[in-house]
Amino acid sequence: MSKSSNSAAKPDQPYASELLAANGEWHGESLTPSDDIDALKKSIVQHFSHTLGRDINNAAPQALYKALALAVRDRLMDQWRVTRAETESRDTRKTCYMSLEFLMGRSLSNAVQNLELVEPVRQALNQLGMELEDLETLERDAGLGNGGLGRLAACFLDSCASLALPVTGYGLRYRYGMFRQEIENGHQIEKPDNWLRDGHVWEIERPEHTCVVRFGGHVEPDNSGASPDRREWVTHDEVLAVPFDVPVPGHGNDIVNTLRLWSASATDEFDLSEFNAGGYAEAVSGKTDAENITMVLYPNDSSENGKVLRLRQQYFLVSASLQDAIRVWLTSHDNFDGFAEKHCFQMNDTHPSLAVAELMRLLIDEHEMTWDDAWTVVSSSMAYTNHTLLPEALECWSLDMLQSLLPRPIEIIQEINRRFLLQVAREWPGDVAKQAHMSIVSFDESPVVRMAHLAIVGSFSINGVAQLHSDLLQKGLFNDFYRLWPERFNNKTNGVTQRRWLAHCNPHLRALLNEQIGTAWVNDLDQLERIIPKVDDAALAQRWHEVKVQNKVRLAKLVEDRTGVQVSTDMLFDVQVKRMHEYKRQLLCAMHAVHCYLQIINGTDEGAAPRFVLIAGKAAPGYYMAKAIVKLINNVAQVINEDPRTKDKLRLVFLPDYNVSAMEVIAPAADLSEQISTAGKEASGTGNMKFMMNGALTIGTLDGANVEILEAVGEENFFRFGLSVEEVEALRPNYSPSAVIAVEDRVKAILDAFSSGMFDCGDGELLSVAIDAACSADDPWMTIADLPAYIDAQDRVSQCWADRARWTRMCMLNTANSGRFSTDRTMRDYNREIWNLSPLGTQPLANG
Ligand code: 26Q
After folding, report:
1. Is the pLDDT of residue 272 over 90?
2. Is 195 left (phi over 0), alpha (psi -120 to 50) or beta?
3. Spatial separation of the C-alpha atoms in residues 97 and 467, rounded to whole Å
4. Is 621 a pocket residue for ligand 1 (Cβ < 6 Å)?
5. Which of 299-313, 511-525, 595-609 has the lowest mean pLDDT?
6. How many whole angstroms from 584 Cα to the centroid of ligand 1?
7. Ligand 1 within 6 A of CB of 51
């Protein structure tokens, strides 16, 4: 679509004329063709007055945002149609990325940027008397994810579109996304996130592609003779899956991929028995059961494990998505020859792993394939990404529940398992323990289905998300499977999209980089290395520093608006933002803040950098300990911030409601990035990459992708501390926090301060729960073991901070070496080693 398809005529609606008259025409210089600006203006005004039916005399800001968003969306539509037509009609391989979460954040600024319309839009708005930044912030985040895994899926979509890879995202359209977090009296309070309340401009409903998903019932033999393996699933519990498509624009390449989100809707077949008994209203209200399926995103919460609604969500997603892929295939094929070669179904963790059974069911029961042929298709098109090593996070579903909700899929899972166990028995003859250990269905009295085992058995590719994590999967958690099928295992280190996480969120640094090395880095992040020869340029370093200060001003304002706490931009901005979890050890960060505070009140703080410690993140609503840590941080913050002795020296803030948009303000302003998980527990981390890209220095353990960040930037530009994975495991049996406390005065002083009641603020119970857990020899996270090394590392940070030239040079080197943490690199890796897609607009690969 051309960028200036409309003529430059002045808008002719009365309200539009008023709008222009009121604000005056703009007469500035512009590099953008004025017809483009005029066309945008006309479109904005047209949507405002006609699509939205609003009156400029009392323009609600939301309507102004929407009018702009619609004008931008219009410019995606033609490209979207073309991309969809090519993706669906080309007889080449495509990927369906299946995920229960897509944490998209805001879309307007992303679309404007990827369409390369920033300047025309800015000018059109200026001429209408508005600012792009003001309208952008009116958009609600699409918070359809918990954290890392969901945001990763969103970054993947951006990179795939930008690389012109035919990848469709499949997810759920939750009515309520990730809860909003409020802090009351130091406690986390959850509020529903009704993100669709004002409508969502970025989705197009496609009722014509509605699918039916079935639940419950029972299975009967099939007498049709269509396939020997076919069975009849008799059920009357049907739910409609209605797709809502969200455009995913590539950067500057005319590609618009699709994120297809399914919404559950009741069929119009009411419960006839109720209906005939005169219970019309009762019959209709039965609909809510079906519609509840996509009502709410589950927070990542072990207390929610095993909930039947979550299982319904998972099956609903995979059944609808696979039916959709098959529907598209059958529009241009009359059999399944070649289907496996032309599809890859990438499962984002085990959440969509029922896909293995569901694709078997669809092929055998609905498309008359034999078991063996169907298994060939499934096991050569499914791929599984693991995101966790924590055993408690591995999904298991009770066999009973599966049997009553999904009687046919569970039958298939049992048969997959039966055949798999024969293979195990051939490999390890007579080793029943091995069979018990590897079995998909556990050998317990109340058996459970281990979803990771199902995913592994059904997939041709199994990957971890950072080198260390992938190594640990092969050596530990999945070792038996690795020994059986080494060729299936691989690593794909995570990344983040630099379009959102540098170019968009850090406009001052973007401008400086553009001036120094040109703009090619936006699509080729390795170009950032061209900064390396310039890191000793003092004038450039000064400007780099000034950019950071500007970003700190912006964050300081956000912090003051949300918490009332004022912070100076002269302070070291020391930031830990991520989900609240014991393994991430926010407690370590809080304990260091207490250490700094004690030094100040004891007058022993010489050499300590003035610090603003910022912590943010949501605790799962049922995660008692994580909530206790939130309360602890808030109490410590209150004491520190109210003590006049800390003025200009120390601030601690817990920023409520951390989300994607908050991170867009936080990452560019951070000086120090806290990546301090217990070694071996954080699969990768992606916040670590966002901070590095924006030139923050990392204080971190050798965990997840931190290892690769350190490798990229060098020991001298990274504050490494703490036990390694091997050291953690070696120490664990003899771990004794009290032995550490006995020889470490600094640690003892911190714990004494807590036990003195200094931070109780009227209720200290929750605090002692958190502190006692850390002081227990059974503390799995070994916080106290790493505390002395952490304080030492923070002292090195303080020393370094005192030498601003050195500090800034290190920051520049961090940005310069962040190229490999682009999801463009990650997606090329997936494509080279798993997907094998040929980019849209090119000739298919020879084997494609
Ligand atoms: C489980 C059961 C019931 C309901 C929800 C869940 C659930 C939901 C979300 C379980 C896990 C998640 C999310 C996990 C996650 O975000 N993992 C992170 O993935 C990132 C991307 O690979 C990594 O960088 C992080 O290290 C990893 O923690």
Report:
1. no
2. alpha
3. 22
4. no
5. 299-313
6. 13
7. no
Q: How far is CA 694 from the centre of its chain?
A: 19
Which residues have a Cβ under 8 Å from the Cβ of 225 and sit 6 or more positions away? none
Task: Kindly state if the Cβ of 823 falls inside 6 Å of ligand 1.
Answer: no
Report the alpha-carbon distance of residue 37 to residue 785 in Å, rounded: 60
Least confident residue range of 12-21, 52-61, 707-716, 828-837: 12-21
State whether the beta carbon of 305 lies less than 6 angstroms from ligand 1.
yes
Q: Which residue, by CA, sits nearest to atom 15 of ligand 1?
A: 149
Instruction: Kindly report the backbone phi and psi dihedral angles of residue 527, in degrees, each rounded to the nearest multiple of 5, phi listed first.
Output: -55, -20
- What positions carry a catalytic annotation? 387, 578-579, 584, 686, 690
Centre of ligand 1 to C-alpha 692, Å, is 22
In degrees and rounded to multiples of 5, residue 249 shows phi and psi of -75, 135
pLDDT digits (tens, 9 = 90+) for 186-229: 999 999 999 999 999 999 999 999 999 999 999 999 988 888 99
Please identify which residue in the block is written with the tokens 């850390």. 774
For atom 25 of ligand 1, which residue has the closest CA? 685
Which secondary-structure segment (H or E) carries 505?
A: none
Asked whether 326 and 362 are in contact (CB, 8 A), the reply is: yes
CA distances from 356 to 32, 294, 318, 360, 601 (A): 51, 22, 9, 7, 60
Rounded to the nearest 5°, which phi and psi values hold at 6? -90, 155
Question: Does the structure show a pLDDT above 60 at 604?
Answer: yes
Share of the chain above pLDDT 90, in %: 88
